[in-house]
């Protein structure tokens, strides 16, 4: 990752289903709390890595369904596919490693002899991963029988059971742990080993993540039996691994605090946002807080006070403008006035606002250009736009924060054709 000249402050390597993403929380509250914390406090100097069992197809589907951030690195198909950045450029070096001693045809041939194995969908069959469903009570016996078969055929593979139903057969060098070890090696060779790494997971295929040396680990409170059992047998006395008392992403935030890895108060846990301004004087935090305010304002979760609007106005540059994604240009202060009408217009409705990839760039002694993706989720679906904000810190002590000089938004592809009458900022 060439985004940094030096080591990342923190690298989080997290599983998605039932770890980062709580499928039992339709409101996605812990995920949104994590998102706000990451964008306000970590995005600029830390690395976010998602490590999922899902194939690229199912991973992209999940991204559409849930308010997930964009990771710096995506590890998919149980550590068999590593990609970098927004355009998900594959790591071909990793493919070469996995090609050694792997013969997919033998795997298919041997597994076809077991009627207890049900092949998963076509999308989940990948070049270095073959996946089945197996009943929980048959799992151990099947794994043993399969290992014996493969050994006889001279094939060295890895068999992993997860979630009490999924059986993955991978190239021996693969797996979430091996993929992480490979990444750490790469960073080390570049002299950019992260200062700290935190692995987060809930099921069997995550166990390997916790056996990589020097890595902190959190098993979220809702971790599966097979992972807890692995822990009891292999890592019980290791103080670098905890079993959180909180579910999913809330457990990740808990671990950040437990291991002292950095700030662990999500802006979503702070209600008095005017007060927190001076303490958190940084451009990323400013952006996260503003959009959180917008969500709360429209959900009628902040006091409908003129004070709020006045303080927002105070941070708008007198000649500041806002370029709405529709192309309409308005003075910033007019936009703030227009907010008055929208107070509570989303009360009692499904409405969330979040920002992704908030990357501030200092372009002058007191000027920052912040680029990010802003998303809104409402009953009608989700839409987003690329946003650029110019912030000035000259009069910070007077206005208690940055002055907003310029805001410019453009719809993401395809979003322009929808009805966006309620899109404000
Ligand atoms: C994901 C994948 C599936 C795999 C499971 C466990 O659900 O889609 O193929 O078996 O993770 O690794
Ligand atoms: Mg999981």
From TrEMBL:
Residue stretches making up the Sucrose-phosphatase C-terminal domain: 283-412
Catalytic activity entry: sucrose 6(F)-phosphate + H2O = sucrose + phosphate
Gene3D superfamilies: 3.10.450.50, 3.90.1070.10, HAD superfamily/HAD-like
UniProt cofactor(s): Mg(2+)
Enzyme class label: hydrolase
Pathway, per record: Glycan biosynthesis; sucrose biosynthesis; sucrose from D-fructose 6-phosphate and UDP-alpha-D-glucose: step 2/2
GO biological process: sucrose biosynthetic process
Keyword Hydrolase attributed: yes
Keywords: Hydrolase, Magnesium
A UniProt-annotated Pfam family: S6PP
Keyword Transmembrane found: no
Family statement: Belongs to the sucrose phosphatase family.
Subunit architecture: Homodimer.
Protein name: Sucrose-phosphatase
């Amino acid at each position: 990752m060439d985004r940094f000249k030096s080591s990342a402050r923190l690298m989080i390597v997290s599983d998605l289903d039932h770890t980062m993403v709580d499928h039992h929380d339709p409101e996605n509250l812990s995920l949104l709390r994590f998102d706000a914390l990451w964008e306000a406090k970590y995005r600029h100097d830390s690395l976010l890595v998602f490590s999922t069992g899902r194939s690229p197809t199912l991973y992209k589907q999940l991204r559409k369904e849930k308010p997930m951030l964009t990771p710096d690195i995506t590890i998919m198909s149980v550590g068999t596919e590593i990609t970098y950045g927004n355009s998900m450029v594959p790591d071909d070096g990793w493919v070469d490693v996995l090609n050694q001693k792997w013969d997919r045809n033998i795997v298919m041939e041997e597994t076809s002899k077991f009627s207890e194995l049900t092949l998963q969908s076509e999308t989940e069959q990948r070049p270095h991963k073959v996946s089945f469903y197996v009943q929980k009570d048959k799992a151990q016996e099947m794994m043993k029988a399969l290992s014996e078969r493969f050994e006889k055929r001279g094939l060295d593979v890895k068999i992993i059971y997860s979630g009490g139903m999924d059986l993955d057969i991978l190239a021996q060098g693969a797996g979430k742990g091996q993929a992480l070890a490979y990444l750490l090696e790469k960073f080390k060779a570049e002299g950019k080993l992260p200062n700290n790494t935190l692995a987060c997971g809930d099921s069997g295929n995550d166990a390997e993540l916790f056996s990589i040396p020097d890595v902190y680990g959190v098993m979220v409170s809702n971790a599966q039996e097979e992972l807890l059992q692995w822990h009891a047998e292999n890592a019980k006395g290791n103080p670098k691994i905890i079993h959180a008392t909180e579910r999913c992403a809330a457990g990740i935030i808990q671990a950040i605090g437990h291991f002292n890895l950095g700030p662990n108060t999500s802006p979503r846990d702070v209600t008095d946002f005017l007060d927190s301004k001076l303490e958190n004087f940084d451009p990323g935090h400013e952006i996260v807080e503003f959009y959180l305010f917008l969500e709360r304002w429209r959900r009628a979760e902040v006091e409908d006070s003129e004070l709020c609007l006045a303080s927002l106005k105070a941070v708008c540059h007198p000649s500041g403008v806002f370029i709405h994604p529709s192309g309409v240009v308005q003075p910033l202060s007019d936009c703030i006035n227009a907010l008055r009408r929208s107070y509570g217009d989303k009360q009692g409705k499904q409405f969330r606002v979040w920002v992704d990839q908030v990357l501030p760039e200092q372009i002058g002694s007191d000027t920052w250009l912040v680029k990010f993706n802003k998303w809104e989720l409402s009953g009608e679906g989700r839409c987003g736009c690329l946003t650029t904000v110019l912030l000035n810190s000259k009069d910070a002590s007077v206005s208690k924060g940055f002055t907003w000089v310029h805001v410019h938004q453009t719809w993401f592809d395809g979003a322009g054709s929808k009805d966006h009458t309620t899109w404000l900022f």
